[in-house]
Design brief:
299 residues; alpha+beta; Immunoglobulin-like; 2 domains; 47% strand
């Protein structure tokens, strides 16, 4: 009889070691959706349901295509203590394979209450999309009006409410304006934007000019991409002095020119419309003189 009771007690103790006091769930992940070839963060919420604290719990990422960790990233996180009826949050930085299929992909984690406890697994669907939008940028021309860039949407998806700006940087600065609103760029479209740019100091060697592209993706998420292009500051000085210096690059071939949106700097537009108004006024004055002359001859 005593032997039976002893075996029952051992069985209860063993079963208790396999009972999880914790609940683990994916609390959030960002960005949403995630992009193939990019990274995203996952936050796991670890909740202790019991009246006693839990020590030595472990949460673990389970690599499976298309999700993985970079070398040096922790695959397991040991939680020293989770107080009774409380929660803690742990974060994993996950890499998405560039060959990931578009749509829902399952990510897996496992966890246990202690070193002697069994693992439990949780799965979560993660929405993956192909590269949101990819941009190519080339130097188009430098002249007395400014520096002009051709910017093409070479990605799969459209880019809406596109704004091109020259952020503050070490080697270059903008005069008058630093941003230009382009509008929408469908896949395969390009636009030309111009800025009045000058070097901060006199330099003879090429330096990186940073250009920021802000846009809204098809999911309504506002995104920013920073591109670099090499520019020789001395070329800027020659161009601003009245000597045109055309860049060796040109607009990428194969793009839809019908979608081109010519963007000019503010001061160029002002001179254009001023010229139109002056021409109209001069034309009206000339017509008035001719009309008076005709009336005088008839009388």
């Amino acid at each position: 009889m005593k032997k039976i009771i002893f075996l029952i007690l051992i069985s209860v103790v063993l079963n208790l070691s396999f009972v999880n006091a914790l609940d683990v769930a994916v609390e959030n992940y960002y960005p949403t959706p995630v992009e193939a070839g990019d990274y995203f963060n996952v936050w796991l919420k670890v909740t202790n349901r019991e009246e006693a604290a839990v020590e030595g719990a472990v949460v673990q990422f389970k690599p499976s295509f298309p999700f993985s960790l970079d070398p040096g990233e922790e695959e397991q996180i040991v939680i020293d203590k989770v107080n009774a009826k409380s929660s803690v949050t742990k974060k994993f930085k996950i890499r998405v394979d560039k060959e990931a299929k578009e749509g829902e992909n399952t990510i897996a984690f496992s966890y246990k209450d202690c070193s002697g406890c069994v693992w439990k697994e949780i799965n979560m669907p993660i929405t993956v999309i192909e590269y949101q939008t990819m941009f190519d940028i080339v130097l188009q021309e430098m002249n007395t009006d400014g520096v002009f860039f051709a910017i093409a949407n070479i990605g799969k998806n459209s880019a809406n409410a596109v704004t091109i700006r020259i952020p503050e940087q070490e080697f270059f600065r903008t005069d008058l304006i630093s941003a230009s609103i382009v509008g929408n760029l469908d896949s395969g479209d390009y636009t030309i934007v111009g800025f009045k740019i000058s070097p901060v100091d006199k330099m003879n060697e090429e330096k990186e000019l940073f250009i920021q592209i802000d846009y809204t993706d098809p999911f309504g998420v506002r995104r920013s991409v920073v591109k670099q292009i090499m520019i020789n500051p001395s070329s800027l000085l020659r161009a601003s002095g009245g000597v045109a210096d055309t860049g060796s690059s040109s607009v990428p071939t194969g793009f839809n020119r019908a979608g081109m949106q010519q963007q000019s700097s503010f001061y160029t537009n002002v001179w254009f419309w001023t010229s139109i108004v002056l021409a109209i006024l001069l034309f009206r004055k000339k017509i008035s003189v001719i009309y008076k002359k005709i009336r005088k001859e008839k009388s």
